[in-house]
Structure formats: C-alpha cells, structure tokens
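Handout, section B. The chain below has 322 residues.
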Amino acid sequence: MKTFDDDFIVLSIEKKELFFIFIVFANIILLLLFTVVIQSINKMILISRIKRYRKKLRKNYYEYRRKLKELGTQSKLKDRVIFEQSKQKSLNSLISNIAHHWRQPLSVVSIIATSMQLYEEEDLVLEEIVRNSKTINENIQYLSNILDEFSQNIKENRNLKKEVFRLDFMLNEFVVNNDSPDIKIELEMLDTYSLYTYKNELFKALYNIINNSKEKLSEREIKKKKIYIDVYEADKNIIIKIKDTAEGIEEDILNNIFEPYITTKFKTRDVGLGLYLSYMIITEQLKGTISVENITFTDKKRKEEYKGAQFLIKIPRSSTPL
C-alpha cells in the first residue's frame, strides 16, 4: 500500500527529469540560436568583403581599360612615327640615289657647256659642236632613264602580286636567251622547285646579278668566260648560287658592292644601281638574304680551276598555296 511519502518521492523524481529535459532542450535552442547568429554575422562579413572586392575589381577594371586605351594610343602613335620615319628614310634614300647617279652626267654637261662658252667663234667648228651635242644628249638620256627606272620600280612595288611558278623555267631563260655568245651560262639544279613569291621581282634581281657578271667578263681579258648557276634547297630555303670566272670583285669595294654609290667606271655606272636594286628586292620584297664573296673553285666536269665572285641568295620557300 502506497503512502503519501512514496507519492511525493515519485513526483519529485518526475519533476527533476522534466527539469533536466527542459535544461537540455533550452541549451539546444540556445546553441542553435548561437549558430544562426554566428552564421548571420559571418554571412554579413562575407557580403561586406564581397562588396569591397567587387568595388575594388570594378575600379581595377576601369583602370585597366584606361591604361589599355592609353597604351593603344601610344602604340598607334609609335607605329605612326615608325611609319613616317620609314617613309622619310625611303625618300632620303631615293633622293640620294638619284642625286648620285645624276651628279656625274650633270658635271659632264656642265663642263662641255662651259668649254663651249670659252671657245672663240672662229675656233668652234661644226664637228666639235656635233660631238659635244651628242655627248650632252647621251647624258641627258641617261638622266631620263634613271628617273624612268626609279618610277617604274615604285609603280611595280604598288602592284606586286605573288604567283606560283617553276624556278627551272625561269633560270633556263638566262641560258636559252643568252645574248652574249662569248659567255657560257651553265645551270645545275637538283630538282624543279616550284615557288610562291613575286616572280617578276625575282627575275629582275637575278637578271641584274647575271648582267653584272657579264659586264665584268666583257671588261677583262678572260679566256674562258663562264657563269655558273647552282640551285638547291636547305632549311626550307631555296639557295641560288651565281658565280663567274671574272677573277673576282676588287677588295676595296667588295664589302660595299650593294650600295648604290659603288661605281668603278662611268660607262658601267648603271651596274652599281642594278646590284643595289637586286639587294632591295631580295631582302625587302622576297624576305630573303644575299651575300657576295670572292672564291676559287673547280669546274667539276672539266677539272679546271677558276677565280671569281659568288653571289649567294636565300629565298624562303613558302608553303602557301603550293
């Protein structure tokens, strides 16, 4: 039989259990609230940081665009300056070349005109007048030809167009259409070699070089007058070697042979201009290289030894559209 004391004890135990459960539940609620508060604070801090970073990023973006625009303006200005300098350099070179090639014939004309003025009337015979007039006319024609050559070169440069062609066909023209019967031209090629470049410009450059060799062979008393053209491929370049038996170029002008001012004789003054134009065509238009040296070599077929100048030309072999 239960007593009052027993009921009181049971009730006290139940209250203690309820109170313990309440305490645990309250702690859980407080922990959850604390967690939520902490997360909210962290979220607010994170949002604040994101805003600051976005503001900084936006500032850096506009600063980057400003600097990029400034650099673009500076680059355009720099390109413009380089372009103007290049034009000025080309113009100065053109004027210098024309002035150089005009100087000597103008001097001849001036000397003749002055000497004719000094003649007494009875001493100035018709024969001398005709001879002097002929000399003056020849020099004036030369001056006109110089202008025509430079004008034609400028005009052709504006209308340059690449094309595909076989190099052996071009080089055979120098052999077949050789207008110097006393000079033999021999061509040796390992392959046909098709090129994609400025055909007419390459022909003009090679013609000037071969013509220069012909001039030297004709000037000098050479028993066996020959020009050798060797062609092969190396490192994606077409190599063209042109050598002659003219006993070489004078050492004092060898290193400056491609300058437009190099002229050894008045009657061959246009040869210097031809080599200069060949150099400009190969290096600037064809993006190749050209060099020259005096060599001693042996004819493989005849076992004969010769001394002469060798021009070495390298032209990039384009892969498009071959």
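Note. The longest strand covers residues 304-316. Compare this with the example in section A.
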